[in-house]
TrEMBL record:
SUPFAM superfamilies: Alkaline phosphatase-like (SSF53649). This is Phosphoglyceromutase. Gene3D superfamilies: Alkaline Phosphatase, subunit A. It holds the Pfam family Metalloenzyme. Residues 1-20 form the signal peptide. It comes from Cyclobacterium plantarum. Residues 221-300 form the Metalloenzyme domain. The lineage of its organism: Bacteria, Pseudomonadati, Bacteroidota, Cytophagia, Cytophagales. Keywords: Signal.
Amino acid sequence: MKKMAILLILMGLGFGYAPAQKTTQTENIFLITVDGLRWQEMFKGADSLFVDDTGMSESLGSLLKEFWDTDPLNRREMLMPFTWSTLEEKGQLHGNRTYGNKVDLRNNMLFSYPGYNEILTGSADDERITSNAKNNNPNTTLLEHLQHMPEYKGKVMAFGSWDVFPYIINEDRSEVPVNAGFDMAEGPNLTEAERMINRMQQEIRGPWAGVRLDPFTHHFAMEAIKKEAPKVVFIAYGEPDDWAHDNQYDEYLHSIKQFDAYLKDLWDYIQSTPQYKNKTTMIITTDHGRGVDKTTWTGHGSGIPRSREVWIAAIGPDSQPFGEVKKEAVLYPAMIARTVFQLLALPYPDGDADAVISDLLP
């Protein structure tokens, strides 16, 4: 017994003790969200219910040719070509409820701030996160946890089209730099591209007061990634939800197709850059679902059926290339936070986050 006690003490001091080896290849995380993109379009392409009366009739242009086919497998490829080629071939897509593969929100609010809080903190908070108001998040996001770790300090960045993200991430407390809403690139060493994006954002105003057009968010993010080489990046695109609220199904589809192109842009850069290539996991999801008929598809929330239904996609060196997952299962976006930490071989800092998505782990 005495020998065993001495051995345990020596192990605790580091003598004769080999620390556990990192079993994941992921060193960087790109967490991507797109606001209000339904699983129906994700997995089936353009919705036949809206083809004739929401901007897609032949008399209004070439939208039928661009987005419509009687086969939903063809439609989804037309809408999201990167997703249904590279992402399906080398990654995973969860949430096609046709096969009983479900991704559901935990929160009961079923709108944006509660959805993003759930994704970023790993748990729902229906008691305190009950509106989209610009209130600083009392909960700690995975971004903040990482920012306060020495190995990630100054290597965490966030970008969003919606001007509420500085509050969701609690920028002041977390010290995570957030470029969102109509923020511009700042600092003494702006690139020529950043100066141009700043100028264009001042000159081109979108139709919404609190949400900028996604091209600004994307290109601010790309320039910062190239310049700063962060280890953890959160990018939140917003256009699909706002076009849907405006009952503009054609613009909703265009914004989804553009979002898919942005995913390709990000993944191509990741795979062409030594710091990121084969060392980066990209996780993609949405903050809420929305209605499914002509009277409810523009909205979402606790009073609109199917608003809980979402989806998750991922691609990276530790995630098996399952493609479209067709097995019966239920996942939750709340699982993303703890999964990110396991991919980085880190213990999650508190016990509140949901379980992990085991399919994304080796």
